[in-house]
């Protein structure tokens, strides 16, 4: 298929640029064409009379002075001109584009996009839209970029790709549905996403593109489901019921009814020839790990191997420590395999996995790399499964004997949404907490009461506890987030000087730096951890009794609940303090919900009710798969329709043989093949 040509075939895209594009995930011409902008600059001319201070807009006028160039600081250059717009003369400044000096002359017309300063009658220019001899485009697409891929190059590469390949873009949504749903053809949506003639075209293209993205996702799930039902000869794991019961009796507590129920559901799948693909959801602290342990043990009694894959090294180590202690009396062998495992240990572990000497392996992505071969992998668990893609889950499922797979998530998802987002899986739910657990006390304070919050943190630390201090999420800029976190960190260091150790954790650290910081906190070396939201889900620090969340109104409900779940994991009373002055009713409702309930399902339900279209709290926080364009919550109706259309298509034509489905078939089968070939 020509769209799978490498971008290197395009004129102007040499080997260096091929490599740079690959870093953005763009390998083929198709990837490039479907690499969409995240916003547009509106380049349509505006009337200055209606302009608001700080607004970004395009003005058109006549240059009335020769350009003046000024150098300041070691590397800074400013080019200024005066531009007459209607009857007003405004000052326009361009920064660090010295060559523009030669582009302007008196009497010339120019359209310029920039940020309006009403007080000074000045425009900080961001883009020269056109001079009089050029046609002015009305919208400019703005793309996510990297160090080595710039806007200008990307735009021209996409233009070239579209000029050469437009005829090869075929619609993945079969014609009948495409027309019924009034969606653009894929060719038209690609054109309008990149080069919209006006805002209406951009909006229409986006709607079609979101549907397309959801539809391909749902179609892939349908294809997996289809393949699984075709494979009636899944693995049968005839475990030893007596031994499993005996193992459960060795636990220091009795299982909750919900834990018993889900163990039974999972075990029923194992015993049958059905290929298990099940999602286990349960709130933080509901006891999923022990359920995982029991089921892995069951597989081992049937002489199969089991694997547990988690998203981070810290989490892997923690599970390993817990489970090896638990399994030691049962003579079950357990190993830990991560990126940090030494070459010698790795070699030894791989050999034991291959020979069958090793029963259980716990690890990170390292488990699905080439060279990891099992003797008899029968059961695989993926913890915090939304942190892995469909592809990675598929790689694990395709290993050796095609094991039964259990995915786990600590982020409760309301049922309707779970079915749509994880349509290929059966769902088990732990909806009950172990008895005797002290619920986390949640408090909402206003910003002016922040000193009181800090005093409470200090008291908790003085009493021997540990504390998290979470700093706000400032939309879209990690750099700004970091600055903020550093300021809070400095504050806390002052507060705790001579009393306790404070550490800082943020998203721009390397993974091993983060792991070290987390490890020091888990071991009690540091007492106060200031962190942006990168703080790892699932990490268990029983001694942490205090969670302080600053500017809590900047977080979504799902995320607040996850953060709160980091404390209250031991037997001491824990507290979560939200500091926030919400700016609207929704924000107030979020805080009130947090104070009112500790139940993750209730929080999730309320989250859905409170969220609107275009909410800044994206899907990333809600335990749902990541989409590039669509938001599975805000765009739920589109997701739901995509799910139904995909199901209808597969019901009528399970193997996608019909001519109307030929483009869809190409996409779906290629993706599945990719997942399996990585194995
Ligand atoms: P999560 O679902 O967040 O992974 P864990 O499995 O880590 O929860 O369990 C949280 C804590 O509760 C652990 O210390 C675990 O030993 C304990 N636990 C699990 N099940 C029970 C139970 N039925 N009764 C009492 N404590 C339990
Ligand atoms: Mg867990």
Can you lay out the helices and strands and say which pair or pack?
Blueprint: H1 15-23, H2 29-33, E1 39-42, E2 56-63, E3 68-72, E4 76-85, E5 88-95, E6 109-117, E7 122-131, E8 139-142, H3 151-165, H4 175-180, H5 186-194, H6 199-230, H7 241-249, H8 257-271, E9 277-282, H9 288-301, E10 305-309, H10 313-327, E11 334-337, H11 343-355, E12 360-363, E13 377-382, H12 390-397, E14 404-409, H13 415-421, E15 426-430, E16 441-445, H14 450-462, E17 466-470, H15 478-495, E18 502-505, H16 511-522, E19 528-531, E20 544-549, H17 557-564, E21 575-579, H18 585-596, H19 600-610, H20 636-652, H21 662-677
Parallel strand pairs: 5-7, 9-14, 9-15, 10-12, 10-13, 11-12, 13-14, 16-21, 17-19, 17-20, 18-19, 20-21
Antiparallel strand pairs: 1-8, 2-4, 2-6, 3-4, 4-5, 6-7
Helix pairs in contact: 5-6, 6-20, 6-21, 7-9, 8-9, 12-21, 18-19
């Amino acid at each position: 298929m020509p769209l799978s040509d490498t971008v290197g075939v395009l004129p102007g895209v040499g080997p260096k640029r091929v490599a740079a594009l690959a870093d953005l995930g763009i390998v083929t011409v198709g990837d490039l064409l479907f690499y969409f902008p995240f916003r547009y600059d509106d380049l349509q001319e505006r009337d200055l009379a209606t302009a608001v201070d700080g607004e970004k807009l395009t003005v058109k006028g006549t240059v009335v002075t020769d350009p003046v160039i000024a150098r300041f600081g070691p590397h800074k250059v400013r080019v200024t001109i005066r531009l007459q717009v209607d009857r007003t003369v405004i000052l326009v400044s361009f920064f660090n584009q010295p060559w523009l000096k030669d582009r302007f002359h008196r009497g010339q017309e120019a359209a310029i996009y920039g940020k309006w300063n009403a007080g000074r009658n000045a425009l900080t220019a961001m883009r020269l839209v056109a001079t009089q001899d050029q046609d002015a485009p009305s919208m400019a697409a703005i793309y996510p970029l990297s160090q080595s891929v710039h806007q200008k190059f990307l735009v021209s590469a996409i233009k070239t790709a579209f000029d050469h390949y437009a005829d090869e873009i075929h619609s993945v949504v079969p014609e009948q549905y495409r027309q019924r749903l009034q969606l653009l053809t894929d060719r038209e949506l690609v054109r309008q996403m990149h080069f919209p003639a006006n805002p209406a075209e951009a909006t229409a293209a986006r709607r079609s593109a979101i549907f397309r993205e959801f539809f391909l996702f749902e179609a892939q799930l349908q294809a997996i489901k289809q393949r699984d039902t075709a494979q009636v000869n899944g693995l049968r794991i005839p475990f030893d019921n007596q031994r499993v019961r005996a193992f459960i009796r060795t636990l220091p507590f009795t299982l909750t009814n919900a834990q018993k129920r889900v163990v039974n559901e999972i075990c029923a799948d194992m015993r049958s020839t059905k290929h298990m693909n099940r999602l286990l959801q349960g709130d933080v602290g509901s006891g999923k790990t022990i359920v995982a342990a029991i089921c892995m043990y069951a597989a081992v009694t049937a002489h199969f191997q089991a694997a547990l894959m988690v998203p981070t090294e810290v989490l892997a180590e923690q599970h390993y420590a817990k489970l090896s202690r638990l399994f030691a009396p049962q003579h079950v062998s357990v190993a830990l395999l991560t990126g940090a495992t030494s070459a010698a240990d790795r070699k030894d572990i791989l050999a034991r996995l291959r020979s069958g000497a090793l029963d259980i392996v716990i690890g990170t992505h390292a488990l699905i790399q080439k060279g990891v071969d099992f003797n008899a992998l029968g059961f695989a668990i993926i913890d915090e499964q939304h942190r892995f893609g469909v592809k990675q889950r598929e790689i694990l499922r395709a290993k050796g004997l095609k094991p039964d797979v259990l995915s786990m998530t600590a982020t409760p998802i309301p049922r309707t949404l779970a079915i749509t987002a994880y349509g290929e899986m059966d769902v088990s739910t732990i909806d009950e907490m172990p008895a005797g657990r002290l619920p986390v006390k949640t408090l909402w304070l206003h910003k002016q009461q922040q000193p009181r919050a800090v005093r409470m943190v200090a008291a908790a630390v003085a009493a021997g506890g540990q504390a998290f201090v979470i700093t706000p999420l400032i939309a879209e800029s990690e750099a700004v987030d970091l600055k903020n976190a550093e300021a809070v960190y400095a504050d806390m260091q002052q507060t705790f000087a001579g009393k306790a150790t404070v550490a800082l954790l943020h998203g721009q650290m390397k993974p091993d730096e983060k792991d070290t910081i987390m490890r020091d906190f888990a071991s009690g070396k540091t007492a106060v951890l200031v962190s942006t939201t990168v703080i790892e889900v699932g990490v268990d620090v029983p001694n942490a009794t205090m969670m302080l969340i600053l500017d809590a109104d900047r977080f979504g409900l799902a995320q607040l609940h996850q953060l709160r779940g980091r404390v209250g994991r031991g037997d001491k009373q824990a507290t979560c303090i939200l500091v926030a002055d919400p700016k609207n009713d929704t924000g107030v409702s979020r805080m009130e919900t947090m104070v009112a309930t500790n139940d993750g399902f209730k929080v999730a339900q309320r989250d859905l009710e409170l969220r609107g279209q275009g909410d800044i709290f994206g899907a990333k926080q809600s335990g749902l798969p990541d989409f590039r364009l669509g938001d599975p919550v805000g765009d739920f109706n589109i997701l739901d329709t995509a799910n139904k259309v995909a199901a209808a298509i597969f019901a009528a034509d399970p193997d996608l043989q019909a001519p109307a489905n030929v483009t869809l078939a190409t996409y779906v089968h290629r993706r599945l093949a990719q997942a399996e070939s990585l194995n």
